[in-house]
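User: I'll paste a sequence; please echo it back and then give the predicted structure.

Assistant: Echoing your sequence first, then the prediction.
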Amino acid sequence: MKRPEFVNATQTQLDELLAQAKTTFSTEQYELLEAVLGTFVYVMQALQNAKTSIKRFRQMLFGARTEHKRNVLKGYGGAGETVNGASDPPAASAATQAQGKQQAKPSPPGHGRNGAQAYRDSTVVELDVPALKPGDPCPQCADGKVYDSPPKLIVKVVGQPPLQATVYKLRQLRCRLCDASFTAALPEGASELKYEHSCASMLALLRYGSGMPFYRLESLQASLNVPLPDATQWDIVLKAVPGPRAAFEELIRQAAQAQLLHNDDTPARILSLMRERTEAEAAGKTPVAKAINTSGIVAELPGRKMVLFFTGHAHAGQDLAKVLAHRAKELEPPMQMCDALACNLTSEFATVLCNCLSHGRRQFVDVLEHFPKECSHVIEVLAGVYAEDAHCRAEKLSPEQRLAHHQASSAAPMQGLHQWINEQFAQRQVEPNSGLGQALRYMLKHWSELTLFLRKAGAPLDNNICERALKRAIRHRKNSLFFKTLKGAEVGDIYMSLIHTCQLGNVNPFAYLQALQIHAQQVLTRPALWMPWNYHE
């Protein structure tokens, strides 16, 4: 069957078609045609209004393209189009446009290699030129003298199993008369432990940092002749958790003092909780809670960012309340960035709420095929705001300078967008219950929270940093599918939080987790001295 051509038809055109068919077709044929066209109208309306559109279904099957403006508006026009007689506001200020002209020339493509400076924690071996030192005569010309110049750097990389083993054969001598036994000592520096601290650090990084399930690592290790059962891996990681747990609890306390907190959640699976829910429903009881989530909280403090993960029945708002319970009472309420779902909010503690502009924009991206001119207008305006924010980051403006810049460059376009949205409803240009109407009503309902960046210094535009953090939990869910118990989920949250916090701070998580195990007693006593940013001291 050939691919059908997509046709847009109005209700008036369909009524005219039915009127002509009524005089030509028999009653049965006419009723069939009327039903077919009615089904067509119903499906088209459902696609425009439903949460899951054909476009979204296509993205589920084949993966979503990036929502960059050049991809979203491809084929639908761009900046400068007029929408209902109103021209688009400028996408960026003169300063940003001038900067864009300077950067218009694309940089040459990279060669894909990392320089020697990227291998920061690698062993460095310094080699001298044999029989030659600075100040000696040149062996080639005999007249000049050699001097120091920048060394030539060569990187050599060696492959090895994630965990490798060494077998020590200790010679034993026994006395024939008294049966005394004498065994050779281990070499200096060799640990008495079978599994050294580095094993737990590597296992945690592979499982909770890269999403490699224990059973998959078991298969890999077996193929490399270094067997490591998945149950043994869990035991190693569990025994090493006291130090990381103390650091995680201190991380919670310090994150509670942050001026800005991002939060969101994603579904999770814990088999023990799912079993309890099934048993309660089978017994005719109401489960304590049905949902199981992994909440991600990103705290931004001066000079550092911290990430916290919590997995269980609680939603993101409840987990945020657990963190804010550690906040100093003399501090002002923090800013909270999230989407507009009620489950992200907490009623126990006051926050200055700001909502994610990307979530509002995505609603227009979803219905762009049905309302191209209107959606293009909104996307172009928001693109200008993001261009101004990128300019602020490039210039490394302070929060106060960034606020002043947005007030000068973004306030007018956003105010024009607000007026344009109100005009769409006042002039009856849009059906309130259509996909476009719902997207516009979302913007109006949450306008104050969506535009907090125009009134408060440091307020972000979106919740993207938290969305990126949650990808770690999503990757774990896709690869490992579930946690077996609530205790396993807690261990996973601890390691994921510490690993991602290290990566945001450009700290080696492998070395950090190892330090927490080696100095576990000191970490338990004074955890504030063992954070990723100060543990070297």
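The two ends are 70 Å apart (CA to CA). Residues 79-92 have pLDDT under 50 and may be disordered.
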